[in-house]
Amino acid sequence: MAKMSPTKELAVPTDDPDPLGREPSEEPPSSRTALAKVLTVKEHLRRKREYSGLIPLSEKSLRFLYDHYPQATPEDWSNWQWQLQNSICTADKLQNFLRLSYPEILAMSQSRAGLPLRITPYYASLLDREDPDQPMRRCVVPVSSEFMTCPGESPDPLGEDHQSPVPGLVHRYPDRVLFLTTGFCSTYCRYCTRSRMVGNTTKFRVSVKQWDQAIAYIERTPSVRDVLLSGGDPLTLMDSQLDYLLTRIKAIPHVEMVRIGTKVPAVLPQRITSKLLKTLKKHQPLWISIHFTHPDELTPETSAACNQLADAGVPLGSQTVLLKGINDDVATLTSLFQGLLKIRVRPYYLYQCDPIMGSGHFRTPVQCGIDMIQGLRGHTSGYAVPHYVVDAPGGGGKIPLLPEYFQGVQHGQIILKNFEGRLFRYPDAQA
Description:
By secondary structure, the chain is an alpha/beta fold. It has helices at about 30-35, 40-50, 60-70, 75, 80-85, 90-95, 100-110, 120-125, 135-140, 210-220, 240-250, 265, 275-280, 300-310, 330-340, 365-375; strands spanning about 170, 175-180, 225-230, 255-260, 285-290, 315-320, 345-350, 385-390, 395-400, 405-410, 415, 425. It has 16 helices and twelve strands. Helix 11 packs parallel to helix 13.
């Protein structure tokens, strides 16, 4: 495995400032420096006992904290603003935590603009230092395959920019709008549908003025009854900003439903604070869809974050992108979806990976997704089986796909195939 020269400056696309308006102020020490500070068992246990936060501190997080941030406390680690300020946004920082492979080094030595690198310290603690093929590492660390374009790929494959009546709002379905509240995420997924805009303040800069334009459009469009807040990640906004948006939207008489799409509980569970929960409870009914990729994301911290949200009365659903070599086998998805139910999250969507630029190494054949559903249906709880959908290129919307359970009609009877492959006849009603 290739090693990066410690003296070589690597150029990566620069990230936009975090939502707090401050750049990270603390450079994580190298692993060698951090490991020189050896904690005694007594000190380790004392600091663990003294911590009393809303989101627990797992042993894995605690060890990573003292290995790489020896000057920080458990209280620092559990502060979501500290996590943002200390996120890994450059190759030089990343090499303190991971032994980078040649494709990773090559990707981060490119000068061309693209999706920025950003990983929270919490999520970095879940990555395998030595294995570049670890599923979670592949999701957030760039590789050179991102610069290879396959036929049919596009910067905006879903045609969102052409279905945007005002900046930051997409109106594709008759009764729903997608409200892009921010271009910032605490951790950037390399297969992101909106990689053309997230983290890019030149192409997508959000302001209260832009929010107000989007809200004004919703106010004058009575067919809109459902608003999905997305981005970027809305839960990286400050509580006061979320409260402003939710208050304005909830005041519109014809809006019946507000949803939030986020990956925060999986990559920044420390964001789920008492103040945030109070804000969300204030604006019920409210639904949250959480982006999960792999069962290894279901840590004690993430489990606690989801349970706190559920305790606050917020219904939780999940959306998962099917990714080659990451979660494209029935056993992995079964473990993920069953694990989500344990923490009160209902698996809702399994997405075919969108054909963004440089996504060929992530995308599976569509038949793979159908096979996944066939391997789940009847073999696990129905609540653990999501809808498999392809978001049609060009703005066609989500199209659900199912295995061929319906086999046809014969002599007035419907021929059906069950999960075991056995055929059954159902007496159809006459029209």
